[in-house]
Amino acid sequence: MAPSSNTATSGSSKDEGGGISPQNKGSWSSFLKSIASFNGDLSSMTAPPFILGTLSLTEFSAYWTQHPSVFVAPASEKDPAKRALLVLKWFLSTLKPSYSTRNDKYGSEKKPLNPFLGELFLGKWEDEAGTTELVSEQVSHHPPVTAYCIQNAKHGIKLEGYNGQKASFSRTIHIKQIGHALLTLTPPTSSSSTSAQSPDPTPSAEKETYLITLPNIHIEGLIYGKPFVELNGCTYISSSSGYAAKIDYSGKGWVSGKKNSFTATLYPAGKEKETLYTVEGQWPETFTIRQGSGKHGTVIDTFNARTQPITPLTVPALEQQDPWEANKAWEKVITAITKGDMDATNAAKSKIENAQRELRRKEQAEGREWERKFFVRREKSEDWWDGLAQRGCQGERIESEKTGGVWRFDGEKAREARRPFHEGLNPC
Fold first, then answer.
1. Omega within 30 of 0 (cis) for the link into 420
2. Average confidence score pLDDT of the chain
3. Could you say which of 114, 122, 197, 241 has the lowest number of CB atoms within 10 Å?
């Protein structure tokens, strides 16, 4: 479904201050103490209003495609190894928007608004790459899971995926991302139609699918009241074309190292020592792509995350949005946060949360399940998924029990979806 052509730039009116204000320092200290003593998943805790951001987690799906030309570039490359490299480059280009943009804009990381079940965020990018469309939907609330689909029909490329988060505290906040992304494209040498509309990401002799795992996160700077994201561990990209990539993340240690650093290698799947390309740098800054292994390889490309032009996402004007769309649904909360009115923030937020609890009670009493508008649940992963995971992702598990199932974009449901999405129902 295409969003309305009457659009406004997403987030253009949102403004927040940086860090923790002096009057909230005491409350911040109390909040940190409560985190340290909390036993369980931190995502279930209620955060004080003064650390809330004005973005819902459903909006975070847009960070995958702030550079549409980089997103679609692999679909035009004939060589499969170079195509896999362009997929790796695109993925690395998404790290700064995904994990550093809010810190750059507001002076510190903010806690996003927790989406309610059925919340939607729809938009599109329009530039020299053509039209790239985004659908993001909160498909589960317990556990919280956001599903998304981004596609460019002109270039025959589609990204879909879903993720949940489990947060814990041990010296700092650690967030394990649960879920994965699937990038599907039609190589230029294929005879099939360049259409990204198929709801089935199953690899075929002509289509290529890339399985992408998600990085783990920890939050630094808590004690100073200016939290920021650091990535740790490693993630993988496994392609049905026979190539794999491993990205190792590292941060600044007590003695050495640079903040937000990474090293990535691309190699034939199952042959990690046969490095074809190496990428190194700092994901919010710049990185360098070399042919071969290590720092002595030939430099073939560089990417500057700070200077790369960003194509703004456009969303329907607020008055044209459905009540279930994120900006419309959270309008009063966003206004209160922007004004610094914590009482009004609490009141508006509680109204949504209480209304959602009532909807869940009614559904339970009537023995029915919430209707998702763009995605469907599957009980287990597809057979080909396991093959990709085993071949290039170190046997990554799908962990469907932690995300309420396996979530896939449904093209038929998407074609039928239109405003009003849930006629006669409001989220609050």
1. yes
2. 86
3. 197
pLDDT tens track for 8-18 = 445 433 444 45
**DSSP string across 83-129:** HHHHHHHHHHHTHHHHHTHHHHHHSS--EEEPPPTT-EEEEEEEETT
Strands 286-291 and 277-282: antiparallel
Paired strand residues for 228: 220
Alpha-carbon distance of 386 to 401, in angstroms, equals 16
**Whether the bond into 143 is cis, omega within 30 of 0:** yes
CB 267 within 8 A of CB 255: no
Q: State how far the Cα of 176 lies from the Cα of 279, in Å rounded to an integer.
A: 24
Question: What is the per-residue DSSP string for 8-36?
Answer: EETTTT----SS--GGGHHHHHHHHHHHH
Residue found under tokens 């943009």: 101
CB-CB contact of 41 with 101 (8 Å): no
DSSP string of 304-320? ETTTS--PPPEEE-GGG
* Structure-token pair, residue 15: 């403004």
In 240-372, DSSP assigns E strands to 243-250, 261-268, 277-282, 286-291, 298-304, 314-316
C-alpha to C-alpha distance for 157 and 187, rounded to whole angstroms: 9
Nearest alpha-carbon partner for 154 in 215, 101, 76, 58: 76
Amino acid at 167: A
Structure confidence at residue 22 (pLDDT): 66
Beta bridge partners of 243: 268
Model confidence at 373: pLDDT above 90? yes
DSSP state of 423: T
Alpha-carbon separation of residue 100 from 110, 134, 327 (angstroms): 11, 21, 21
pTM, full prediction: 0.88
List residues bridging with 262 in a β-sheet: 249, 281
Which residue has 């729809």 as its token pair?
Answer: 122
Identify the helix (H) or strand (E) that includes residue 345: helix 342-366
